[in-house]
Amino acid sequence: MRESIRRVCVLSNDYKDQGLKLTHRIEDYMKAHGGEVSVVLTKWDFEKEEWVRPEQIPEDSQCILVIGGDGTMLQAARNSYGMGIPLLGINRGTLGFMTEVDSDHLEDSLEQLITGDYSVEERMMLEGEIERRSGEIISSAALNDIVINRAGSLQTVRFDIWLNHQLLRRYNADGCIISTPTGSTAYNLSAGGPVIEPTAKAMCMTNICPHNLFNRGVVMSGKQLITLVIPGDRQGRDQPVEVAFDGTFKVRLHTGDSIDITEAKSTTRIIRLEPTSFMETLHKKMGSV
Q1: How far are the Cα atoms of 11, 31, 177, 221 from residue 40, in angstroms, in the given order?
Q2: pLDDT tens per residue, the chain (289 residues)?
Q3: Cα 40 from Cα 3, distance rounded (Å)
Q4: What is the dihedral angle through the alpha carbons of 180, 91, 250, 56, rounded to the nearest 10 degrees?
Q5: pTM assigned to the model
Q6: What is the DSSP code (8-state) at residue 36?
Q7: DSSP 3-state assignment of 31?
Q8: Considering only CA atoms, which of 54, 139, 42, 117 is closest in space to residue 271?
Q9: Any catalytic annotation for residue 28?
Q10: Which listed residue (17, 60, 70, 104) is catalytic?
Q11: Element (H or E) spanning 244, and its range?
Q12: DSSP class per residue in 58-99
């Protein structure tokens, strides 16, 4: 048994939780059982294709209840990065690989939090530091993956991959996915990469549609440093590419720019209510799509 959770923050939006019905159910139940509830609203900007940053999450929250799908969970992990507050996902999406609770069992799940009947998983995150040729530095973190993709042109991208400051090789591909174990079942899996148990400390590098006869995903320790450098194309012209952190925060890169990727200093803590193994969850979720 763990500590009783009575101070919760609900991260919600009126697109996934229309009329905030689930939010109000949480408020009613927790307050009836002596709990405290803070509500933080966020929303997806369809025009800009990005999350609108929500209000500040209270630092004394014992748990963040995330209403939505996997995308909302990823954004919650970014919004609470470094705070150490565990997340519990309430599924209002489709696949919901990271969201454990369904609305039919909401009150039962809240009771488990109050009685301490839960466990917490530590999930590693990635940290990416972009260095432009101008010297500008841009940093961000990701729970699922950091993806380097072609931007604009339909031509393949040339990029050099360095491992711990040693050149691995030059690739020609549509892009490259660097994923965590949590993200190994997302874009990485669709691109033919391996599945990794989510609590492992590892990174997976999978190229997207590589232009060579041999390509396999590479799994390595999270302590490794992966550097991707963007050279010119075959004619020496500028190559515009895009770096996406968990598919939302995006940065445009050009020839001469680079990005360093390694294990982040902070983790995402995910609450588990059922003693279901990773493989059981994988078969349940992936067998239905």
Answers
A1: 5, 17, 31, 36
A2: 789 999 999 998 777 888 899 999 999 999 999 999 999 988 766 666 666 666 789 999 999 999 988 888 998 999 999 999 999 999 886 666 788 898 889 999 999 999 999 999 999 999 999 999 999 999 999 999 999 998 876 778 889 999 999 998 888 999 999 999 999 999 999 999 999 999 999 999 999 998 876 677 899 999 999 999 999 877 778 888 999 999 989 999 999 999 999 999 999 999 999 876 666 666 665 665 4
A3: 23
A4: -100
A5: 0.90
A6: E
A7: helix
A8: 117
A9: no
A10: 70
A11: strand 241-245
A12: PTT-SEEEEEE-HHHHHHHHHHTTTT---EEEEE-SSS-SS-
Q: Are strands 157-163 and 202-208 parallel, antiparallel or unpaired?
A: unpaired
- φ, ψ of residue 170 to 5 degrees: the values are -100, 135
CB within 8 A of 3, min separation 6: which ones?
A: 62, 116
**DSSP structure string for 101-168:** B-GGGHHHHHHHHHHT--EEEEEEEEEEEEE-TTS-EEEEEESSEEEEEE-S-SSPEEEEEEETTEEE
pLDDT tens digits along 6-21? 999 999 877 788 889 9
